[in-house]
């Protein structure tokens, strides 16, 4: 039975990943900063274990691993899903505090969680999954902190795969494009506010650069995460795997 930790797992892609691993018979612990969302997740998914954690706070991360030892007694799969987008603003208008907040959670928070998880994953010859983004392949106007952090997570993934391969730990990044849900809706609303176009126009513009004219379901991202923990998936390491309906850079 897999023991799985999903950071930022109370909603969106993280919750879909938790649901998929639970359905596969895993024991799953999710952490999130949103207590209300965690309560709802527990009520929705019987058997789900939860703990409140701000991944920008190392004391909270230390407490998370105390809870993980209590709830799971070890770790086979780490899904580094935690992340925030920050404001939708041009670079010269982005406050320094917002820049630091995005990188502090998306990059440093992911590092701090992973650093503590590695000894446990060495014992289990486990799997690390890092949730990057299509923004980790292409530039992302008006979201410079987010794009920078997601590019950084690709280097993080590739370096870890080199360091940890000798311990039979596979490390891969998933790069979702437009994924349905509240977060996607907020991004489109932010673009519309800057451009003066309608929500519908901004959505159509986003889909125009995709081969498949649809928005990816969070469940499809979860299926890919689960696959990376199967015997076939464990033969993949150091990869940056897009799941974006073939987003074309244009």
UniProtKB/TrEMBL annotation:
<keyword id="KW-0560">Oxidoreductase</keyword>
<dbReference type="Pfam" id="PF00106">
    <property type="entry name" value="adh_short"/>
</dbReference>
<dbReference type="InterPro" id="IPR036291">
    <property type="entry name" value="NAD(P)-bd_dom_sf"/>
</dbReference>
<dbReference type="InterPro" id="IPR020904">
    <property type="entry name" value="Sc_DH/Rdtase_CS"/>
</dbReference>
<comment type="similarity">
    <text>Belongs to the short-chain dehydrogenases/reductases (SDR) family.</text>
</comment>
<dbReference type="InterPro" id="IPR002347">
    <property type="entry name" value="SDR_fam"/>
</dbReference>
<protein>
    <submittedName>
        <fullName>SDR family oxidoreductase</fullName>
    </submittedName>
</protein>
<feature type="domain" description="Ketoreductase">
    <location>
        <begin position="2"/>
        <end position="172"/>
    </location>
</feature>
<dbReference type="InterPro" id="IPR057326">
    <property type="entry name" value="KR_dom"/>
</dbReference>
<dbReference type="GO" id="GO:0016616">
    <property type="term" value="F:oxidoreductase activity, acting on the CH-OH group of donors, NAD or NADP as acceptor"/>
</dbReference>
């Amino acid at each position: 039975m897999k023991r799985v930790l999903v950071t930022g797992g109370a909603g969106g892609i993280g919750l879909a990943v938790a649901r998929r691993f639970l359905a596969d018979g895993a024991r799953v612990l999710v952490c999130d900063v949103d207590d209300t969302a965690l309560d709802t997740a527990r009520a929705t998914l019987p058997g789900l274990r939860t703990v409140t954690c701000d991944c920008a706070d190392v004391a909270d991360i230390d407490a998370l691993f105390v809870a993980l030892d209590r709830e799971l007694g070890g770790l086979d799969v780490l899904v580094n899903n935690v992340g925030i987008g920050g404001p939708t603003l041009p670079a010269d208008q982005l406050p320094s505090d917002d820049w630091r907040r995005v990188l502090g959670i998306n990059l440093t928070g992911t590092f701090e969680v992973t650093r503590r998880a590695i000894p446990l994953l060495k014992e289990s010859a486990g799997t690390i999954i890092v949730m990057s983004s299509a923004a980790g392949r292409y530039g992302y106007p008006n979201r410079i902190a987010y794009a920078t952090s997601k590019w950084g997570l690709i280097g993080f993934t590739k370096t870890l795969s080199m360091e940890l391969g000798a311990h039979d730990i596979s490390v891969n990044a998933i790069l979702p494009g437009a994924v349905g849900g509240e977060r996607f809706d907020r991004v489109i609303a932010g673009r519309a506010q800057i451009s003066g176009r309608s929500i519908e126009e901004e959505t159509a513009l986003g889909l125009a650069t995709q081969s498949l004219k649809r928005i990816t379901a969070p469940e499809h991202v979860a299926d890919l995460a689960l696959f990376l923990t199967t015997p076939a998936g464990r033969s993949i390491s150091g990869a940056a795997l897009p799941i974006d309906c073939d987003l074309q850079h244009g």
